[in-house]
UniProtKB/TrEMBL annotation:
Belongs to the peptidase M14 family. PROSITE patterns: PEPTIDASE_M14 (PS52035). GO terms for cellular component: extracellular space. It comes from Danaus chrysippus (African queen). This is (African queen) hypothetical protein. Residues 14-247 form the Peptidase M14 domain. One of its GO terms (biological process) is proteolysis. Its cofactor is Zn(2+).
Amino acid sequence: MASNFSESSVLNNDYYIDTDSSEEKEKAENGTQTRFLKCSKERDFPAICTVSVIGKSVEGRDIKMLKISNSNASNAAVWLDAAIHSREWISTAVVTYLADFIARNFQDLSNSVTNKDWYIVPVLNPDGYEYTHTRDRMWRKNRARRDGVCVGVDLNRNFSCGWGNNGEEGSSDNPNSVFYRGPEPFSEPESSAVRDTILSSSTEFKVFLSFHSYFELIIFPWGYKTDPCPHYLDLLEGASIMARVTT
Ligand SMILES: [Zn+2]
């Protein structure tokens, strides 16, 4: 774990460094994601990059999203998010690296990349992300409170598909568990922001990727049952290719 911490710190610091004089102010207000999104992509690539706020966290921080698109109406949409588990810092570094690569090389990339609307959320759990930098390096959940006490909800156990179907296996109804799924599906503003952004989009989503770093795994549906999901073979082929290129 020590080496993980070191690697993540280097990547985060390097990636988010900005010479803007307001850096320290922004850092204090909203963490590193603000600097990346405000000062880099939208400014450098205004024709294809747009930054928006898709929701607020439990503690009121902005959940920021970078959209990279040539605005072609026939595009399909791709979703990339990171740091839904706040301690998995390197997921943010990976997603911001991908965003930078796509934006910087957009004119030279193949049509299979440029005919997509890229929806990128580098820090989906900004409260937890901040908390891992200031209080507890291994905090995983959001900062939801119950009866005035912060317990936190494991945000990727808070989606509606199969919510609570397996009892204490894979998630938990115990607020003290690191896998606490919350009192009901989409009880949390962070998970709700994902749902609302995708459902309100006029562009059809073809890909949804959530980046984690706790294990070296590529997981695709279903996570809560063993039945094969629709398009199972296509997903298996895609996941196998991803596994090959990332090892
Ligand atoms: Zn994770």
